[in-house]
Design goal:
The complex is a heterodimer of chains A (321) and B (340). Chain A has 321 residues and is mainly alpha-helical. Helices cover 77% and strands 2% of the residues of chain A. In chain A, the strands form two sheets. Chain A has a two-stranded antiparallel ribbon with strand order 1-4. In chain A, strands 2-3 form a two-stranded antiparallel sheet. Chain B has one domain: ABC transporter involved in vitamin B12 uptake, BtuC (Orthogonal Bundle), CATH 1.10.3470. Helix content of chain B is 72%, strand content 1%. Classes of the chains: A mainly alpha (321), B mainly alpha (340). At the A-B interface, α6, α10, α12 and α14 of A face α1, α6, α12 and α14 of B. Chain A: Keywords: Cell membrane, Membrane, Transmembrane, Transmembrane helix.
């Protein structure tokens, strides 16, 4: 950038750089943060620490998977945090019938929320931001109606699920990985995945091609709701408490950041599950790094804001090409 | 990504034209869209004052008016943003940041207490506007990031939320929030003045016409020679300024820079604007509707509080359900008008 001759060849290089950043920036970021922590952070390289990080990232990752589907269909789901809260209140209500029935109740609750927002978007033609915003307010309230205050959750199965591990790998991380593989398979290999990407690319074209646009859009939000409910159940299991007031607060932000940083464009038509997983890990590592170096949570929020804008900016350069 | 398929195909009229095509049905539809919220407000207020003795008392009405004032100022800025077809999710955090800055600055006098939040919040709005208008990033993601950043700044100047700055109750700044003029709280007067100014600017000024034009059809507005990028930048700056100012007023009213109230205010503001008849797809809307929307939300909140047996959590359920109903009605009415 120092002389003009260099400046002339810059646009192509810059577009290429941005493209590379969008595709692989997230992996480079994760690697850089890992290296930084290995060198500069005390007690970073320990099984205990990796388990903690993995357990903390699992709920965000699961929510981000559903968000990736919504964003891939050129939408967004702002209600995920509140659906987690609704799930935790349902778990607390139905735990008397056993943990699995509680999980099913939570998932059904999440799916009903997704069905509602999906129908509003697909049939009424409401913008995704607004439809899911309404659900976000409503579900948080409903969660508080079902369960007015924090309640501890005592259940052996759930405690094992939330805190136990196999061969040193926490159950939560395994479940998150399995769900990520499932969603990646769905996007890449199933008709539903193809249709979803086609709709995200161009809804009028998908409609003209005779794709079941409405059904697919509803399915997208039902999936997002179900995944958020599973994340809510797992978060409840880990914390061994149901807190409908604060569980999942700002979760939609973290999930959107993970998806966008992972290289999924907001304009739809493309879903990158590997990138989303790396994006979720990146945010978790960023938070952990700042906390371990005694920087306050306010710094984390500002850093996250900068990362979101950078990621969207990199994606924009690609869109212009 | 905020434009639905229907919007992309059918162009909307840039400015509303009630009943110009003569059909009575058309006129009724337009009327329902514009004044539905006002009718609902009158009906609910009438039922409430008949059902609860304490509803129509002077104290309760004044309380509702003052507490509506802050949300109304935020909703005013949001109205401009939404008419351009955008959205500003940062206003809740900016509101809190404005309050904290005002409370901190009040020790150096009223001028600092007002200018500091206006400068910082206006700057946040300006950055939002530049990123959206010049760099062409999606409004919801930019303002979402700004929401996080504003919250981060607020936390870092309040010792992670542990420190609450107080406003001297005898200062002139505190009077701005707590004082009364002709028996009505000063914030209510200020809000009234801001809304009248806002309505005049939107209806009568060149900037106002540009706001409608940009929201109606951005490409057409650019071809007509409207300064699209400048209009958008200004709109987000205005939204930041008003949210910061509302926060400062709120701090004066509470005599402290509260660090926990106000988050989630963007939802109420958007709901109020939409309930008031402004179309989320842009190009159509008016500030008086947003004022009615704010009052309607506050009356519903008050009624739920009056029904003592209902938990305050129901309020959120009702707000969410109400927003859904209004958006469905709006989409339906909007589609109807296009067909006719």
């Amino acid at each position: 950038m120092t002389d003009l001759a260099l400046g002339k060849s810059l646009p192509a290089d810059r577009a290429q750089l941005m493209r590379w950043l969008q595709d692989y920036g997230v992996y480079a970021g994760v690697t850089a943060l890992l290296l930084f922590n290995v060198v500069f952070t005390e007690n970073f390289v320990s099984g205990e620490n990796f388990r903690t990080q993995a357990v903390q990232v699992a709920p965000v990752l699961i929510v981000a998977l559903g968000m990736a589907l919504a964003i891939g269909s050129e939408g967004v789901d702002l209600s995920v945090g509140s659906v987690m809260a609704l799930a935790t209140s349902l778990v607390s209500l139905y735990l008397g019938y056993g943990p699995w029935l509680a999980l099913i109740a939570a998932i059904i609750g999440g799916m009903v929320c997704g069905l509602l927002s999906g129908s509003l978007i697909a049939y009424i033609g409401v913008q995704p931001i607004v439809a899911t915003l309404a659900l976000m307010v409503g579900c948080r309230g409903l969660a508080n109606v079902f369960l007015p205050q924090l309640e501890t959750v005592r259940d052996d199965t759930m405690a094992t699920l939330g805190t136990g591990d196999i061969l040193g790998i926490p159950y939560l991380a395994l479940i998150a990985a399995a769900l990520a593989a499932l969603v990646a398979f769905t996007v890449k290999r199933t008709t539903f995945g193809r249709q979803l990407l086609a709709i995200g690319d161009s809804r009028p074209a998908a409609q003209l091609a005779g794709l079941p646009v409405r059904r697919v859009l509803i399915m997208v939000y039902v999936c997002s709701g179900a995944l958020a409910a599973i994340a809510g159940f797992l978060a409840t299991a880990r914390l061994q408490a149901s807190d409908p007031t604060s569980l999942g607060n700002l979760m939609e932000l973290s999930a959107i950041t993970a998806v966008v940083v992972g290289g999924t464009p907001l304009s739809g038509g493309r879903v990158r599950i590997g990138g989303t997983v790396a994006g979720a890990i990146l945010i978790q590592l960023l938070t952990a790094t700042l906390i371990k170096h005694d920087l306050p949570s306010s710094a984390t929020q500002i850093a996250q804001a900068v990362v979101i804008v950078l990621a969207v900016y990199a994606a924009r350069e690609r869109g212009k090409q | 990504m905020t434009v639905s398929y229907e919007d992309a195909v059918v162009d909307k009229p840039t400015v509303e034209e009630p009943g110009e095509r003569g059909s009575r049905r058309d006129r009724l539809t337009a009327l329902a869209q514009q004044h539905g919220a006002l009718v609902a407000l009158v009906v609910i207020a009438a039922i409430a004052s008949l059902s609860f003795d304490s509803f129509a008392t002077g104290g309760n009405i004044e309380n509702m008016a003052v507490s509506s004032a802050f949300l109304a100022v935020v909703a005013l800025g949001m109205t401009f943003v939404i008419i351009t077809g955008g959205i500003d999710l940062s206003v809740g955090s900016v509101f809190v940041l404005g309050g904290v800055l005002a409370a901190w600055g009040s020790r150096y006098g009223t001028v600092v207490a007002l200018l500091l939040p206006l400068a910082v919040c206006g700057l946040i709005g300006l950055i939002n506007g530049l990123l959206i208008a010049r760099s062409r990033l999606a409004p919801f993601i930019v303002t979402l990031a700004a929401m996080l950043a504003a919250r981060g700044i607020m936390l870092s100047i309040t010792d992670e939320g542990a420190q609450t700055y107080l406003v001297d109750k005898k200062s002139f700044f505190a009077d701005l929030g707590q004082g009364k003029l002709l028996g009505i709280g000063v914030p209510v007067w200020i809000t009234a003045v801001l809304f009248i100014t806002g309505a005049v600017v939107l209806r009568r000024s060149r900037f106002g016409q540009h706001v409608y034009a940009v929201g109606g059809n951005e490409d057409a507005a650019a071809l007509m020679g409207a300064p699209v990028a400048r209009t958008k930048t200004l709109v987000y700056t205005l939204s930041g300024l008003l949210a910061g100012f509302a926060g400062a007023l709120n701090a004066a009213w509470l005599a402290s820079g509260v660090t926990i109230l106000g988050f989630g205010m963007e939802l109420d503001a958007i709901a109020a604007v939409v309930i008031g008849g402004t179309l989320l797809s842009g190009g159509l809307g008016f500030v008086s509707g947003s004022l009615v929307g704010v009052l309607l939300l506050k009356v519903i909140q008050n009624v739920i509080n009056q029904i003592g047996s209902l938990d305050s959590a129901y309020q959120q359920v009702v707000s969410g359900a109400f927003l859904v109903v209004v958006v469905i009605a709006q989409t339906w009415l909007g589609r109807r008008r296009q067909v006719l």
